[in-house]
Design a protein that fits this description.
Blueprint: E1 6-10, E2 18-23, E3 29-33, E4 48-55, E5 58-73, E6 76-88, H1 98-116, E7 121-122, H2 132-136, H3 140-144
Antiparallel strand pairs: 1-2, 2-3, 4-5, 5-6, 6-7
Keywords: Membrane, Transmembrane, Transmembrane helix
EC number: 3.1.3.64
GO molecular function: phosphatidylinositol-3-phosphate phosphatase activity; phosphatidylinositol-4-phosphate phosphatase activity
Length: 150
C-alpha cells in the first residue's frame, strides 16, 4: 500500500495481521497492523522487497513485482524474481538541479539494467543464503530461527 507519507507492506499469510510501515520522510521502519493502513492508500501486489538504495534524488525502495517458480528444494518453492519496481521515497524531484536530475536518471537506468539481468532468486520458506552442507552443521537453535532472524 502506498500513501504520501508511508509504504505499507502487508503479509499475505493466513492470519497475518502485521504490516511493515516504512516512513517516506524519516525512512524509519516499524511494525504496525492492517487497521492502521489508510483506506485511501494505493494498493498493488508485490512478492517481496529486494532492498533500498540511495541515489542522487534520495532513497528508493526496490520491490519484486513478478516471479516465476523455477523449482523446489526439499518441497520448498524456489522463485526467480523476473520484474521489479523502483519506488522513490520522495514525492517530488523539485529539490534537484537539472544536472542532478540527469545524474539520477542515469543511475536509475543503470539500476534497471542490473535488475533485468537473470540471477535474483528467493524462497519464503527455505534458506538460500547457506549451503546444504553448512545448514547440516548448524546448531538446533539456528535451525529453529526464522529466516529473518538468521
Amino acid at each position: 500500500h502506498i500513501t504520501q507519507e508511508k509504504f505499507y507492506v502487508e503479509a499475505c499469510d493466513d492470519g497475518a495481521d502485521d504490516v511493515l510501515a516504512i516512513d517516506r520522510v524519516s525512512t524509519e521502519v516499524t511494525l504496525t497492523v492492517k487497521k492502521d493502513v489508510p483506506p485511501s492508500a494505493v494498493t498493488r501486489p508485490i512478492y517481496g522487497i529486494l532492498g533500498t538504495i540511495r541515489l542522487v534524488a534520495g532513497t528508493y525502495l526496490i520491490v519484486i513485482t513478478k516471479k516465476k517458480k523455477v523449482g523446489e528444494i526439499f518441497s520448498h518453492a524456489i522463485w526467480k524474481a523476473t520484474d521489479f519496481d523502483i519506488l522513490s521515497y520522495k514525492k517530488t524531484m523539485l529539490h534537484l538541479t537539472d544536472i542532478q536530475l540527469q545524474d539520477n536518471k542515469v543511475f536509475l537506468s543503470m539500476l534497471s539494467h542490473v535488475l533485468s539481468v537473470d540471477g535474483f532468486y528467493f524462497s519464503t520458506t527455505y534458506d538460500l543464503t547457506h549451503t546444504l552442507q553448512r545448514l547440516a552443521n548448524t546448531s538446533p537453535e539456528f535451525q529453529e530461527m526464522s529466516l529473518l532472524e538468521r
